[in-house]
Design a protein that fits this description.
The protein is about 40% helix and about 15% strand. It is an alpha/beta fold. Strand 13 and strand 14 form a beta hairpin. It is an enzyme of class 6 (ligase). Its EC number is 6.1.1.10.
């Protein structure tokens, strides 16, 4: 019987794979091209995009972001037939919709892969050959419950009793509710059962390979259960829309094997992938965790390649507590939402409210309340008040007065020396530690917590501004003028930090804020970001600088929900028209 080694091989890694300046490939799943995008797709892409932008602002080394569309499989073959078109025409249209939605959302992907492309198909054929040559494939008769929407066979433990469209009893997927059908055919099988030990060793040696931890623990539990061999092809007479098995025209390569290889084809497999692989972080939804955390690493090991460095997993979006479903008519169109709430407004909402470990709920009122409160009122209002001509008639970055705000060793022991009070010192300490906190949360795939910290500091800064009422100070009094300038200096320094840290999430709004503060492009990196240098007795390059031109309201408050809902309904296009 064929057996893989119990321990993983440890090939020499390239220098670029570790340490400062190393390369990194971020990836989203490639999205299935049987229907238009929804907010779940966009959420995956925004997480990856924010991680990419954050990395670039840290000047951490070359990075790429790949995405694309998965264009093969029985589901697409059936969807095309139902729409009265060919699979190729359907994929062309739907792939265009995904490109359009991602571009509209400002997702800065560097590569867009379509599995119908020749370069990808060549990579898949080579990968199949590596599996075949490694002795991990065999032909056998396979039967079981097949779920077409999920493109996978499901064991009895993942099934439940349900009813079909005609109300007749049937078997359904326990997780998704999709109907399954008993299928028996002769396929190529992959010896997945032989990879239990290598996969367990990989995960124990790399406890952060799958993150957050609940998903890591979930995969370990799967590995303690039965791990049957995997069907990796379908009979060609059942599935024509796919890549034929090399040297066997009666079989089509299983759509998930085909799709997973996109992560290799995008970096030049089989010739030049070594420059990037395995320094790869996959961002995936929890519904496809098994494919990415069990099947994909096993397939890679069988082909003589290392598993990806990290798999970052997120949960789903529900709508008013219900799963998104065409039958319920509650699928949320991201393009409509971006038109309604603004691109940055909707980006902020998804990344601020999305918690990877648990499902998140969407409804219009929540978006309006959040972005009005945190973007329009708290952040936008603070910028508007601190740069208003009535308070800052010279339109400059005012000077900081050390006698007004003297340095203390411990903000917790500050008793209000000078004109500053204890809360002011707590604000300075909070904002000074913010860049490190935010960096840590991005590295830990907790972007929502980074945004929570920023929002809390913005609230503290508004409290600082309100507490000292600079509009009440008499600038004709030299002492009062010093304190007024110091209040404005501290406020603008806080705003500069917030604008810099928010660039990965709301790039256009952050640019608008930083431009108003006259922060030049070369001064916007996270690496070397300083705060309130004058408080530490150092020079501040912004002090005395003329502010940038007034860029208007930072973020317009969203209007009445009833009006917005009407506009949303008018903008929506039925799925059938899109296809």
């Amino acid at each position: 019987m064929w057996r893989p080694p119990r321990r993983l091989p440890r090939p020499l890694r390239r220098a670029a794979a570790t340490g400062p300046g190393r390369r990194l490939l971020l990836s989203t799943p490639i999205f299935y091209a049987n229907g238009p995008p929804h907010i779940g797709h966009l959420y995956s892409a925004l997480l990856a995009d924010a991680l990419l932008r954050h990395r670039r602002l840290r000047a951490a080394g070359p990075a790429r972001l790949c995405t694309g569309t998965d264009e093969h499989g029985l589901k697409i073959q059936q969807a095309a037939a139902a729409a009265g078109t060919s699979p190729a025409e359907l994929c062309e249209r739907v792939s265009g919709l995904f490109r359009q939605a991602l571009t509209q959302a400002g997702v800065g992907y560097t590569d867009f892969t379509r599995t119908s492309e020749p370069r990808h198909q060549r990579a898949v054929r080579h990968f199949w050959g590596a599996l075949r040559d490694g002795g991990v494939l065999y032909k056998g008769s396979y039967e079981g419950w097949y779920c077409t929407p999920e493109e996978s066979f499901l064991p009895e433990s993942q099934l439940a009793e349900g009813t079909d469209a005609q109300g007749r009893p049937c078997k359904v997927s326990l997780e998704t509710g999709h109907e399954v059908h008993w299928t028996k055919e002769e396929n190529y099988m992959f010896r997945l059962s032989a990879f239990r030990d290598p996969l367990q060793n990989w995960l124990r040696d790399n406890p952060r390979a799958i993150f957050p931890d609940p998903f890591y623990q979930c995969v370990l539990r799967w590995l303690d259960e039965d791990l049957p061999d995997l069907s990796v092809s379908r009979e060609r007479n059942r599935l024509q829309w796919g890549i034929p098995v090399p040297s066997d025209p009666t079989q089509t390569i299983y759509v998930w094997v085909d799709a997973l290889v996109n992560y290799l084809s995008v970096v030049g497999y089989p010739e030049s992938h070594g420059a990037w692989w395995p320094a790869v972080h996959h961002v995936v939804g929890k519904d496809i965790l098994k494919f990415h955390a069990l099947y994909w690493p096993a397939l890679l090991l069988a082909a003589g390649l290392e598993p990806p460095e990290r798999i970052l997993v997120h949960s789903h979006w529900t709508v008013r507590g219900q799963k998104m479903s065409k039958s319920l008519g509650n699928v949320v169109d991201p393009s409509v939402c971006m038109g309604q709430y603004g691109v940055d407004g909707f980006r902020y909402f998804l990344l601020r409210q999305g918690v990877p470990e648990r499902d998140c709920d969407y409804y219009d009122e929540k978006v309006v309340k959040l972005v009005n409160s945190e973007l329009a009122d708290a952040l936008g209002g603070l910028l508007n008040r601190s740069t208003a001509p009535s308070i800052n008639p010279s339109n400059t970055y005012p000077c900081f007065s050390e006698p007004c705000f003297p340095k203390v060793l411990d903000s917790r022991e500050a008793r209000g020396t000078g004109r500053a009070c204890a809360e002011d010192y707590r604000l300075v300490a909070a904002v000074a530690s913010l860049p490190v906190q935010v960096d840590s949360y991005f590295e830990g795939f907790q972007i929502y917590r980074a945004l929570e910290c920023i929002a809390q500091c913005v609230r503290q800064t508004n409290g600082f501004f309100q507490r000292h009422r600079p509009w009440k100070l008499d600038r004709r009094d030299a002492v009062e003028q010093l304190w007024l300038d110091t209040i404005l200096h501290v406020t603008l320094e806080c705003l500069r930090v917030y604008g810099t840290l928010l660039q990965p999430v709301v790039p256009h709004m952050a640019d608008k804020l930083l431009s108003r503060l006259a922060v030049r492009p070369g001064e916007r990196r996270l690496s070397g970001l300083t705060f309130l240098a004058r408080y530490d007795g150092k020079s501040c390059p912004f002090e005395g600088r003329q502010l940038g031109p007034d860029t208007g309201i930072l973020f317009h408050r969203l209007g009445k929900l009833e009006t917005m809902k009407k506009r949303k309904q008018e903008a929506q296009v039925p799925d059938k028209q899109l296809l």
